[in-house]
Design brief:
Elements lengths: L3 E10 L3 H13 L4 E4 L52 H16 L5 E4 L2 E5 L2 E4 L5 E12 L16 E2 L5 E3 L12 E5 L3 H12 L7 E4 L4 E5 L10 H17 L3 H10 L3 E2 L9 E7 L1 H7 L5 E2 L4 E4 L3 E4 L2 E4 L4 E5 L14 E2 L2 E2 L9 H14 L3 H7 L11 H17 L2 H9 L4 H7 L6 H28 L1
Parallel strand pairs: 1-2, 1-6, 2-3, 6-20, 7-15, 8-18, 9-10, 9-18, 10-14, 11-13
Antiparallel strand pairs: 4-5, 5-6, 11-12, 15-16, 16-17, 19-20
Helix pairs in contact: 1-7, 4-5, 4-12, 9-12, 10-11
Length: 466
Amino acid sequence: MKEQMLEADYLIVGSGAVGMAFADTLLTETDATIIIVDKYQKPGGHWNVAYPFVTLHQPSAYYGVSSKELSKGLRDEVGLNKGLNDLASGAEVCAYYDDVMRHQFLPSGRVQYFPMCEYQGEGRFVSMLTGESWQVSVNRKTVDATYLKTSVPSTHKPGFSIADGVRFMPLNDLPKINRPPSGYVVIGGGKTGIDACLWLLENRVDPDHIRWIVSRDAWLLDRQNTQPTDDFFASTIGSMAAQFEALAKAESITGLFDNLEAAGVLLRLDPEVRPSMFHGATVSRQELNELRRIRNVIRLGRVERLEKDTIILEQGRVPTDTGQVHIDCSASAITNLEVKPVFAGDVITPQTVRSYQPVFSAAFIAHVEASYEGEAKKNQLCHVVPLPNHDTDWIKMMAGLMMNQYQWSQDKALRQWLTENRLDGMSRMIRDASKDDVEKQAIIKRMKNNAMPAVAKLHRFMAELG
């Protein structure tokens, strides 16, 4: 079969959240032609294979592409997110990206989309359905929007062995249960494990019938502090001010985390267990209260093997039986934590330039590509904020974030772009705060007064971490 030749200004590998956000900004701000290649049948990346009850952990207003709103503009009136801004479901996210592709990208005449294709490198990709192959002549850049390698339960290979006869399933299969097991064992303490536990509790499973294997406790974020609407100014922008204050007042790394917890910036599952992990998982206070109903939390390290009658862990073993359902929630959302330059020759590798926000980051990087000259300048503006794993990674993450925010604040055009981009709601909240609003101005003043002392403490703690 003869290889077909194509030409475009940009070749984007991956039509997940990062690839779509990047393409959207290019379409809006340039006249570039784009080819998008993806292995899934529809845009949305890992959302195509996510578990059926998945939702966003942070408000929908911060997700999607810059040019089209995802949020319904509503507050949830029922459930564990009650009183806070809406969280799109996985189905809503998939439908949203399909709509963006079909009604915005393709009608532009500047985007060609090749789903169900395997990218082989060097501009070449092959259809997984027909075996057809294409070679792209790329005029400007190739964009690797798959670099962060998002992992989901349905495609994750567990890092432990499973004996024959053990009832074991990925989280995706949990809603398929049609006969009550003797109990549930949730394996994984991250976002996915939290979702599994909350789903079971919401579906009236007795918390005493749930055992939760948590290899490392994590610091959690309070979702109330991430709200995009002005009526949450005191909690959202107030949380930013509280982080600066916590840093400025801290005399040790342990003291810093004590300050952050006291200020309501960080939460933990068990007040008696000091977390050693931080992945940026976000919960509401109602969700945290629900999770605390589960009393049988197993803290013996990672699972090494599931036997029919025993769960073998790094630091011990606990009994089980074939009547128990063992639910795999051990996949890490992001499996590639290695940082590399965003701009390197004819390749762009989108990574996080703002904490917790890969989608905003992709749109921002695309804007920098469209608006600035010179690789050094572009990388200066797009310093990668490392994704956190250990608790102390909060310090490295905050240092990277504050460095970027300072760089961006020195550029008037970039400040304007930030306040106008819908994925960056916080800059707009600060800009729109009335000078006559005493409470809001007091919060902004706290941020400004503590910014430089906070930076000084970050440098000190970074040196201690080595």
